[in-house]
Predict the structure.
Amino acid sequence: MSKKYKGPAPTKDVGKDQKKKFPMKLGAVALVAMLALFMMAGAASAFEFGSLAHQSLCYDTKYLTLFSKNPSTWQIIDNGVNGEMIYCDNNYYPQFQYRAYNMQPNIEYALVRVPVIWDGSVKILDLDKSSSTGYVAGSGVLSAGGAKVWLVPLRDLTSRYNSYNPRFKVWNPTQYLFENNLI
């Protein structure tokens, strides 16, 4: 004995509606998938160090080296910890990227802007944590030039927020990276 279907009787319009909706659903799924791929490709290139120099809005790319320095002479320490920074020196695209090697592992670092005439305060440009091997990297928006750039452990500053006017609460220059030129 066969069982009979007890649900609602299908109408003639069901097939027509499915035919009309299927291409639209398929198109929407394809569009979302393409957007996701473009976003992933954009995110991957945004974190590639040096990609900033290839962006069309950055027509004046500058390079800055960050060094360990001897605090008694302020001379660069050969074979010391070092890093590099790429930045756009124009008002249209004031972006930067930086990376540093052989820093203390698993420490949160702040890339700070220090005015040439230093009143003790700094402006935090970026916060990033070093890896277990001491590699740290980041990017952000660059504030006005004419300043020094240092990479310091965040724990040495009074605050992680610029609105609180961060300053150094301890001075450990042997653990910092300093610029070789003003930005």
About this structure: Residues 11-46 form one domain. The chain has a mean pLDDT of 77.
